[in-house]
Amino acid sequence: MRRGQMEMVGLVFIVVLLIIGAVLWIRLSAIDTGGGQRAQDLQGATSFLVALKETTLPMCGTSFERVAASCAAGGTLCGDPCYEAQTAMREIAQTALGDRGVRYNLSIEQTGLTVINGCDSANLSVDIAAAPRAPLVLPSGAQRNIVLSIC
Amino acid sequence: MRRGQLESPFQWVFVILAGGAFLVFFFILLRGCTQQGEERIQGLSLQAASMRLQSAAWNPDSTTRLSIPESTASCPAGILTLHTDDSQVSLERTPAFLPPLLTGGISAFTRRVSLGSEIPIGNVLYGLDDGTYYLVVVDSRGGYPLLENLEHENIIRVRLDDLDDPDLLAEEVPGGAKTVIIVTDENPGYIRNAAVGGMPEDVLVLGVAVTDSVNFYRRSGAEMEAVSRLPLEHELLGLGAVISGEPMLYRCARGAFELRALRLAALYKDRAEDLSADISSASCAVTYERAVELLGTDDLGQLFDKGEQLASFQNSLLQRSCPVIA
Amino acid sequence: MRRAQLQTLEPVIIIVFLGILFAIGLIFFVRLGGSDVTIVNEREALATLSAVTTLPELSCASSVSSDTYCLDLYKARSFAEMNRDDPLYYFPLLGAAEITLSYVDLRTGLQQDIVLYDTVNPNSTVIGSSTFFTVHDSVREERHFAMLTIRRERT
Q1: Cα–Cα distance, B257 to B263 (Å, whole number)
Q2: pTM for this one?
Q3: Which of C48, C63, C94, C137 to mutate to test the interface with B (most CBs of B within 10 A)?
Q4: From residue C82, how far is each of B223, B263, B299, C85, C88 by CA, in Å?
Q5: Mean pLDDT, 10 residues at a time, over chain B (326 residues)?
Q6: ipTM, 2 decimals?
Q7: Which residues of B touch A3 (CB under 8 A)?
């Protein structure tokens, strides 16, 4: 092999050694999973909504689903169902999400029931149309969705 | 092109090929290391197999097929242990009924045990080893039903008369088999008279008879001798005795199951006490108090004896819209 | 450019080219490696959740219907107390983990925590995951919104 080619091989070898060293260093060093941690914490967005629906509102003696459906239908279950549903949404979302540093927008379509914690259309991580949602069936058979958007 | 002009592009090609080859080789190496790590976890090691058995034992009504190195099962100090020549692993607190010799493959399934089918008190796991054969003695009434009804190629029905034929037993079991367990549900005398003389010496021959108790036998020369007789509290434990074939292994798994059953009984008792204190209905409270008396036991046999009564309490509470015990 | 100038720049150009190759490879490699770790952790957490909620020690009675996982509040309290006395009994099933049930009592607006199981070494690094349930209060016939948090020792 000519000297020039030998030099070239040597250069390639050095470069590849540097690449190996750099990759190993990045692979083995502690990776910040802060973002991964949040992602894991939020994997249950859909289960959040299902659990919310099943939760009993003690002042009403019935489920959140029924109270919210009554609100959406303009009913009078539990006196003021919209107030009761809004209060429950706020307390549950704050405890389960807000107190753990999650910013969210929890709402029920076409009802005006919304709880926002630092999350608006400008900084949504997922478009509203793609956010996790759970159906709420009204007495009339119509359907509204409970939507949870995370920022 | 002149030779000198050809050198420059040649060098470039050489560099690209060499560098690319190094990079590809490196990434393949790293991927291979990762896969090797995973294979080590999922491989045929004793540790991996025991973890899978333990995991299966916690799931009711599970069916698992797994590979295991050739090993023996024993029960030192009441803890189910699997041994190979150079390693051992404990399956502590695992109610797994296994035969004494394990030859490479196990079909395991679990069953949930309940009091009166209403109150779950734990699971038991049965491990059917590929090298263990169950000769179920069948007469005009049938054979041991719980084993006979299982679908497995190692479960072989033999007629009572066949036990007089010294060659037939050897024919039923393929060459190289390690353990034969002769099973009957009546009259342990059949086991005593089983013609085991024709069975090769390297085959471990055991016998289990399930009547109102569990009777264990072992080959002694050309006959079967009685080894142990143990009480039988539940038919699913009887099936476990048959699967194990050996009293020590049976006691080991039964002991682990008893531990779980009594823990659950204590939890249900605790719950019944709390419900009794918090419930406003007096009639519900009375039933809880009666259940607390029955659940306050540290003996598995007594727990099973009271099972039907506890199950009836459970039903009664349900019908009266009281919170149930379990 | 003259040929001589080009020849002196050749090593530099090679390094730049290989550097680009390296960057592309590194981007793919780190993204693949990172997501493998996350997927394995999530799978383990979900397996633990499934195991916990099917235990008769914790599950709601079969007469209680639910669209989501349902734990019984009274059983959870008893289970937690039993595990304080004998924390290792469920180790073959649950491993080194801390499992906490938190539920929201809407009467008081406060969160109540029950540590169901804890075998985590205090000095170890942990990663966590959560999911949401209802926990059933049999006496009041109420379901509380609840969260099950599993913190597992990082391997």
Answers
A1: 10
A2: 0.78
A3: C63
A4: 49, 9, 19, 5, 11
A5: 55 71 74 61 72 91 90 93 90 94 93 90 95 87 84 86 72 79 78 71 89 90 88 94 96 96 95 92 91 92 92 91 90
A6: 0.77
A7: none
